[in-house]
Hints:
This protein is of the alpha/beta class. It contains 13 helices and 14 strands. The chain has helices spanning 15-27, 77-88, 99-111, 125-140, 160-163, 205-217, 243-256, 308-311, 326-339, 344-359, 362-365, 394-406, 430-449, and strands at 42-46, 49-52, 57-60, 118-122, 144-149, 181-185, 224-229, 259-263, 287-290, 302-306, 369-375, 378-383, 409-410, 419-422. Helix 2 (77-88) runs antiparallel to helix 9 (326-339), helix 10 packs parallel to helix 13 and helix 12 packs across helix 13.
Amino acid sequence: MSELWPQVSTPLPGPKSEALFARMDKVAAAPMQDHDEVPFVEARKEGCLIEDVDGNVFADLVSAWGASPYGTPAPGVTDAVVDAQRRYGMEITDYVQNDVAIELAEKLVGIAPPGISRVMVSLSGTLAVEAGVKLARESTGRPMILVFHGQYHGEVTYLTASVSSDLAEVNSANSAYVGGLVFAPYPNQFRAPFHRGPGPYDDTLYMDFIEEWLLVHQVEPTQIAGVLIEPVLGEGGIHIPSAAFWERLTTACRRWGWRLILDEVQTGMGRCGTLFAGDHWDLRPDILLLGKGIAAGGQPIAAVMATDEVMADTDVHGGGTFAWTPAACAGASAGIDVLTNGETLANVARIERSARRILSPLVDEVPQVGDVRMLGAFIGLEFVTDKESIRPAPEFHRQVHQESVRRGVLGVTQLGKWVYRMQPPLTMPLDLFEWSCETVADVIRDVATDPPPEADSVLDRAIPEGGTRRR
């Protein structure tokens, strides 16, 4: 496998994938019957390549949605997981403690931003968000949480479904629409509410909205317990706030006693070129949420970290039966060793430089490429119908994704969105990554020669043939 290169030699899906899809469709719920976005069945994954059951090979720019950040198998992670599983079997760590969990907690505190000194066990990013909100409310005695449109924090019914608003349909028919939440738009320098056409816009205008409208007309600042925010917007399209925005927000947090809750589930553990994305602006969160990348390609695990003031005397329980099993802790600990070895983050810097060199010129070259944004190995290309109206072009996005897969590149897409995302393994060899970028760039140029028609509104779209998922 390691000597192979991406190549697709059958129609997609291939005959073996087609047969396996037919079997799956007989027994699986509707969302698992959508084969439009990923038209193959995986046979194995090694390094940064995925091979399907028909022998086709794809460059992996998904990284298990960031949960396999070092390719597969990750150096040392698999061995650590297997050894711990043999030694401990299944154990409930938040009741019966073990040495590998203690070692992981110490490592996390050792690499955390200044002020973060405590760790709470968790299983997934969704549950980490739940615990982070509880901690903010408990430690301040206040009821409200300030959140931002376009973020994604999970999909449980009570709380996080109410704030998971990267697309409105994520909430449809399942959100409790609970109280205790106030919303502001996420800072976006390319397109802004109440403005026509493309930016760049000064994204401190979003703080103007919070301070001059939301706090005046909707909620008193002394009722807000915390601000739940992604340092870089992930599912909503790789938006990167400015230093000026962060200065305004953190100043408001200090003035009003708000807990800064950084959701680093997608952006943390090296994804954005630093240990945590907030490090780019020297952010000092009160509460830090980790998931996905902390697993290092091993077993499911997440974590909630906080200051002594927030967590030292808390009564909040964030664990559960499967939170921080010994095998998951051992894998995560080995992953931190990979992250901090000096080479991994250097490779992320190389990935970002290559992506800027190959992809950024598309903005001036292709009318449908409105913007290219990236921080480290977190990359987004926003598609529009034209540069003047910057009307979203989700069908253009869909065709770019599908043709890229047919040429051997698997990126991140989602029905109804217009930003194509690339999140390669942090350790992806540069030649493979650059080939992937060049392939996607060629696909974009080809689709632009005969761009597909777009609906009048992003609200007016149909499920493509063979696709059943609404999200």
